Amino acid sequence: MRRVVLHPSAFVDWFGGSELRADFEAGQLLVVVPTSFVADTMGLLAARGWPADRIERAAGEIRLLGFQLTEPPDSELAMWLARGKPSAAATYAALASSLDTPIAVRDEELRRALRTLPQL
């Protein structure tokens, strides 16, 4: 089974149907996220102008998906923070690098910042 660290910017595609979602629903993909994933995703949706009730429904749906919640090791997180990455980006980067697994990210600025990681 393949696995991927899913960043909220890539998760937004999930609602419109995506290859990652299809693979996950077929049992071919393990999605790994930090415990802050729901809050991070809610923040992204709010920044994109979603109304509160829709953000709340999305959060409820996320919790039902059964993604694997994992925190990166402190040493790995410290390394990414020392490279100047913001804490949210560093958390996802550290998780992906510690698991030696690709990260799915759609935000172009973040994609460039994480260019040393395998990406989907």
| Overall body shape | globular
* Structural category: alpha/beta
CATH homologous superfamily caption: 5'-nuclease
CATH top level is: Alpha Beta
Instruction: Indicate the CATH topology.
Output: Rossmann fold
Poorly predicted parts:
none
What's the quaternary structure here? Answer: single chain
The portion of residues assigned to helices is 40-55%
Q: What strand line-up does the widest sheet have?
A: 3-2-1-4
- Biggest sheet architecture: 4 strands, parallel
- What's the N-to-C terminus distance? 15 Å
Radius of gyration: 14 Å
Tally of separate domains: 1
SSE order, one letter for each helix or strand: EHHEHHEHHEH
Per DSSP, what share of the residues sits in E-state strands of 2 or more residues?
A: 5-15%
How does CATH name the architecture?
3-Layer(aba) Sandwich
Number of contiguous helices: 7
Let me know the average pLDDT. Answer: 89
Using DSSP, what is the number of strands?
4
SSE topology sketch:
Layout: E1 2-6, H1 8-11, H2 19-25, E2 29-33, H3 37-47, H4 52-65, E3 68-69, H5 74-82, H6 87-99, E4 103-104, H7 108-113
Parallel strand pairs: 1-2, 1-4, 2-3
